[in-house]
C-alpha cells in the first residue's frame, strides 16, 4: 500500500512524501511481528512518566505542553498529559508548536506555566529520521540553533533502536533492530496486511 501525501505547514505546501505501509516492502523487517498489548503499553507509559517526573526541568515548573508526533506519539502524549497534568498540543507539526506559545502571548492569554520546557513524545524511534525532521523544524522556528538556551525540548519515546538512542532524552525499552513492533492501536490496521 503506497500513499503519497502533500505535507503542509500553516497552509503552505512544504513537501511531498511517499509513505509505504506494505510490510513486504519494509527494508529492515521480515513479516514476523511482535504485538504489544494495552497492559504492556500502560506499564511502559507509567515508567516513562516516572522518569519525566524526576526531571528537574519538569518537576520544578512543569512543562509548557506535550506534543505527540502522529500517530503513535498522539496516544503517548495524551497519556502523559493526563498523568502529569500537562497541556497537550496535537494539532500541527513542530514548527507550529512555538507559534502557539507566541500567539497566546500576543493575545494576552495568560499561561499557567512560565516553563520553557516542551515534551515531544513518540511511541518509537527506529531510524531517527522523524526526530531529525522535528529538530530541523524547531531549529527553523527558534533561530537556527539545535540546542536553544531559551527552550528545553525533551524527546521521550517508549521504544528506541540502539543505533539512535542518543537522539532521545528518555526511553523505556531498547528494541531489537530487526523487530517489528505492533502497538495495541495498530491491531487490525490495513498497513499490517501482506499481499
Identify the CATH class: Alpha Beta
What is the radius of gyration computed over CA atoms, rounded to a whole number of angstroms? 17 Å
* Alpha plus pi helix count: 5
Q: Sketch the major β-sheet.
A: 5 strands, parallel
Classify the helix fraction into a percent range: 25-40%
Residue stretches low in confidence (pLDDT < 50, at least 5 long) are: 1-24
Mean pLDDT: 74
Q: Which structural class best describes the helix and strand composition?
A: alpha/beta
In N-to-C order, the SSE pattern is EEEHHEHEHEHEEE
* Overall structural domain count: 1
What is the CATH architecture annotation?
Answer: 3-Layer(aba) Sandwich
Q: Hey, roughly how much beta strand do the residues contain?
A: 25-35%
Looking across the biggest beta sheet, what order are the strands in? 5-4-6-7-8
Shape: globular
Kindly report how far apart the N and C termini lie: 9 Å
CATH topology category name = Rossmann fold
| Beta strand count | 9
Could you describe the 3D structure shown?
- This protein is 32% helix and 25% strand.
- It is an alpha/beta fold.
- The protein has a single domain (35-192), classed as Rossmann fold (3-Layer(aba) Sandwich).
- The strands form 3 sheets. A 5-stranded parallel β-sheet has the order 5-4-6-7-8, sandwiched between helices. Strands 1-2 form a two-stranded antiparallel ribbon. Strands 3-9 form a two-stranded parallel ribbon.
- Helix 1 (38-54) packs across helix 3 and helix 4 runs parallel beside helix 5.
- Mean pLDDT is 74; it is low at 1-24.
Amino acid at each position: 500500500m503506497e500513499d503519497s501525501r502533500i505535507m503542509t505547514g500553516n497552509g503552505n505546501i512544504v513537501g511531498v512524501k511517499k509513505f509505504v505501509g506494505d510490510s513486504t516492502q519494509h527494508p529492515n523487517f521480515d513479516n514476523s511481528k511482535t504485538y504489544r498489548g494495552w497492559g504492556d503499553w500502560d506499564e511502559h507509559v507509567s515508567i516513562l512518566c516516572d522518569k519525566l517526573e524526576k526531571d528537574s526541568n519538569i518537576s520544578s515548573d512543569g512543562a509548557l505542553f506535550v506534543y505527540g508526533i502522529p500517530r503513535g506519539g498522539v496516544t503517548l502524549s495524551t497519556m502523559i498529559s493526563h498523568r502529569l497534568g500537562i497541556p497537550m498540543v496535537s494539532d500541527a507539526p513542530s514548527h507550529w508548536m512555538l507559534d502557539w506559545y507566541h500567539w497566546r502571548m500576543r493575545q494576552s492569554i495568560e499561561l499557567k506555566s512560565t516553563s520553557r520546557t516542551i515534551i515531544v513524545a513518540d511511541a518509537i524511534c527506529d531510524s531517527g529520521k522523524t526526530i531529525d525532521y522535528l529538530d530541523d523544524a524547531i531549529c527553523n522556528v527558534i533561530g537556527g540553533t539545535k540546542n536553544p538556551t531559551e527552550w528545553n525540548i525533551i524527546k521521550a519515546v517508549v521504544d528506541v533502536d540502539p543505533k539512535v538512542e542518543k537522539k532521545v532524552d528518555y526511553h523505556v525499552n531498547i528494541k531489537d533492530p530487526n523487530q517489528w513492533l505492533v502497538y495495541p492501536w495498530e491491531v487490525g490496521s490495513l498497513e499490517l496486511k501482506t499481499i
